[in-house]
Every structure is written in C-alpha cells, then in structure tokens.
Design a protein that fits this description.
Length: 256
C-alpha cells in the first residue's frame, strides 16, 4: 500500500475538474465495454504540472472509480497524493509516455475487444474503408509485442514507437490513445473501437473491403480537423459533457 501526505481535494478547481473528468473516463469505458477486470489504465497529467499524473489505485473496477480515489504520482514513480497500490505496467507504460511524448497529456490504454482483435491479425492496419476510420488517417502507429511492460525500457520503446501519432496499436496486446484532454481522449478511444468493430464485422463476411482512394481519405481527414468545433464549442467537449450527464443520472458518485 502506498500513501502520501497530501489530501486530494485541497487543490485548485482545475485539478478537481481534471479528477472528475478522468473518473468519468473510467466509468464510461466500463459502460461501453472497454475495460478488462481491474487491469489496464487511464491517466492524465495534473493541471499546471508537466511531471505529475493521475492514476487510479490498482484493485478498483473502472465502474467504481471516483475522483477522490485517484493517486497522484511524480515522474520518479512516487505517490505524492492519495492512497493505494500502483501496478507495475501502469507505472512503466504511462509514466514513460507522459514523460517522452509532450502532447500526451491524457493516456488511455485498454484491451477493448475489436481494436485488440484487429491487432491480432497478421495485417493489423485500420483500413481507410469507413468514415470513422478516416478520422484516424495517418495518425496510427503500430508496434510489435515484446512481452509484459515490467521495466522502463519497454515503456520507452512504446513511447518511441508512438512518436507524433495519437494512437498506438499494440499488436497482440491492445491499444493506447493519447490526447490533450480526457474529453478528446475518450472521443478518440470510442471512435477507434467503433472503426475497428466495423472493419472486423466487414471482414467476417469473407468479402473484400472497399478501400477509399487516398485523395478522399486525406480530404476527409482534413474535414474532420476543420469540423472539430460547432458554433464556437469544441465537439469533443460537448460530447463528453453529454456523456457525463448520462453518468450524473445513474452513477453520480464518480464525481465525489
């Protein structure tokens, strides 16, 4: 059991909001079936810090994670706020990605079924054959499996493989999605799984996928980027707030 000296709710409004949003990611991931028991991890940098991140204590189901449960770790792996167990792969993967990939303020690693299934194929590519997939055009890196991440070397290998992309398809393992915020991260996670699900279903027919021309894929990806706002509001934030209202109606304790 790891313990810190600092109470978790004695911080700024920005930190409280960040905790609530990350707890919401856990609950929503469980609701959509992206979880796998007490395993896998969702993390984000602490607002105002580039060397501290939030992590749920190991042993909790994602469906029971609350904002006040989240641990705060520094880049030495020390728990500086909260109380609970730190699982090895969470430390080695997430700390490494947060440290080495500056744009990765939020890091979501899951074994969600359809993305994981796609990564088990000899050719694991997400094909540009559906609209949801086009939102990931030229934004997915692929890395071969190399065993459990039980040291920083493996975490750093994954971070280096990710590079400037926002999605890492971890072959024979799962996926890792990075974003600037929990709202953007969960949106990417959700639509990645939907795109993979559509491809797996299409392949199950035994018929050939119709791959869209590269010119169409590039143009549509640009449209996705241009359409990130609606009426001056961020589309991902609007979607995330709607999903949190869903949680507020049935499991509002996530924010406590």
């Amino acid at each position: 059991m790891n313990a810190s000296r600092e109470p978790v709710w004695s911080r700024s409004d920005a930190e409280r909001r960040a905790r609530i949003d990350l707890a919401a990611c856990h609950r929503l991931a469980a609701r959509f079936g992206f979880n796998e028991g007490i395993d896998n991890h969702l993390t984000m940098l602490v607002p105002g810090h580039s060397d501290r991140f939030y992590l749920a204590p190991f042993g909790l189901l994602w469906s029971e994670v609350k904002a006040s449960d989240l641990l705060e770790l520094d880049f030495s792996g020390t728990v500086v706020a909260g109380r609970g167990l730190v699982e090895d792969t969470a430390l080695y993967i997430h700390l490494s990605v947060h440290r080495l990939v500056p744009q990765a303020r939020c890091v979501l690693h899951t074994h969600m079924p359809h993305a994981t299934a796609l990564g088990m194929l000899d050719d694991p590519r997400l094909e540009m054959a559906g609209q949801n997939a086009l939102g990931f055009h030229d934004d997915i890196a692929y890395v071969d499996y190399n065993g459990l991440a039980f040291d920083y070397g493996e975490g750093e290998r994954l971070a280096q493989a990710l590079g400037a992309k926002s999605v890492l398809m971890m072959r024979n393992h799962g996926v890792l999605v990075t974003a600037r915020s929990p709202a953007q991260g969960f949106e990417r996670l959700y639509f990645l799984e939907r795109a993979c699900q559509a491809q797996v279903l299409a392949l199950s027919t035994g018929r050939k996928l119709r791959i869209l021309p590269e010119s169409v894929a590039q143009a549509t990806a640009a449209q996705f980027r241009a359409g990130a706002g609606v009426g001056g509001e961020d589309r991902a934030e609007l979607r995330f707030e709607a999903l949190k209202r869903l949680l507020d109606r049935s499991e509002a304790d996530y924010a406590s």
